[in-house]
Amino acid sequence: MSSSSRQRGRPKAFHDQSEKNRIQSLDRALDVLEQLAHGNGQTLTEIATALDQSPATIYRILTTLELRGAAEMDAGDQTWHIGATTFRLGSAFLRKTSVVERARPVMRALMEETGETANLGIEKGSEVLFLSQVETHFSIRAFFPPGTLSPLHASGIGKALLACAPENRIDSLVKRGLSNFTPHTLTTEHALRRDLSDIRTRGYAVDDEERTEGMRCIAAPILNVYGEAVAGISVSGPTHRVTKPMIADFGARVRDAAESLSQSIGGPRLGLRSLLSG
Questions:
Q1: Which of 15, 51, 227, 267 is the most buried (most CB within 10 A)?
Q2: Are the C-beta atoms of 255 and 220 separated by less than 8 Å?
Q3: Per residue in 194-216, pLDDT tens?
Q4: Which string of b and e fits 20-45 if b means at least 16 CB within 10 Å?
Q5: In the chain, which residue ranges form alpha helices assigned H by DSSP?
Q6: How far is C-alpha 38 from the geometric centre of its chain's CA atoms?
Q7: What is the mean pLDDT of the chain?
Q8: What is the pLDDT of residues 237-253, one digit of tens each?
Q9: Which CATH architecture has domain 13-82?
Q10: Structural contact between residues 173 and 123, judged by C-beta atoms closer than 8 angstroms
Q11: What CATH class is the domain 93-277?
């Protein structure tokens, strides 16, 4: 390689992942973070001993991490802990993988079991934002491509999320007004609250032609480790296939799928029903 090539900074073998291409200081910093994650507060000496490094080296790493919020020191007992930045980075990974990625096989199985389109959505303001969909094999189908928005009060997923929401959240939504879309839309506070009560009892929500005539949607909330509804999963299809006698069976399947997903991300095993019993 010529000297001019070297000046551009291109490595000889940029696919080489051997020891010579590792950044030693970064490697050590990650070792320190992993060590901090193992205990509930460790002194500088304990960390240095565990990693077989000099206290001076470990101290420089810890102070750098502290400046970035990735580590913090308890001045009282001189122990070091994982910082808030580390938590935020981990949370970003969980948001990306735990719900959307983990939901795909569950949604696929739900679509195969019911024969209808499976959907995944989250709350965005006063609407549901659809993130993912596994479509039915039928030509006539419900279609909510990623990015589609639907009002909370006129959506299966939306009502499933509202059933887990605090009272002031529901009050705020009602005060803004409940738009009407079909003769079946719930447009009064009394009707909406009665339906939310039913959802909490059975563990799943039903959009019975409330957004689009001729379409039904059955949904349940996905809960995180804190018991908070972070997303909803549903199946939807035309009323001539998703008939009223089928609602209970579909509801149980959707509820089971939501509870399985909740448990996979650290949430309660019995989903919405666990909140009621708690």
A1: 267
A2: yes
A3: 999 999 999 999 999 999 999 99
A4: eeeeeeeebbebbbebbeeeeebebe
A5: 3-7, 24-38, 44-51, 55-67, 84-94, 102-114, 156-162, 167-176, 189-202, 247-264, 271-277
A6: 25
A7: 87
A8: 999 999 999 999 999 99
A9: Orthogonal Bundle (1.10)
A10: no
A11: alpha beta
Bridge-based pairing of strands 229-238 and 71-74 is unpaired
Q: Tokens for 253?
A: 């399947």
- Give CATH 3.30.450.40 domain extents, the chain: 93-277
Residue 14: per-residue pLDDT? 45
In this predicted structure, the answer to whether residue 129 has a pLDDT above a threshold of 70 is: yes
Amino acid at 98: S
Where along the chain do the CATH 1.10.10.10 domains lie? 13-82
With vertex at residue 205, the alpha carbon angle to CA 256 and CA 94, rounded to the nearest 5 degrees, is 55
Strand-pair partners of 71:
82
Token pair recorded at residue 242 = 């998703």
Question: Could you give the 3-state DSSP secondary structure of residue 63?
Answer: helix
CB 150 within 8 A of CB 119: no
Q: Helix, strand or coil for residue 209?
A: coil
Tokens of 248: 């209970």
What pLDDT does 89 receive?
79
Locus of tokens 């009002």: 151
Query: What residues form DSSP beta bridges with 121?
Result: 130, 232
CB 78 within 8 A of CB 45: no
Q: Locate tokens 């050590």: which residue?
A: 28
Q: How many CA atoms lie within 13 A of 178 on its CB side?
A: 24
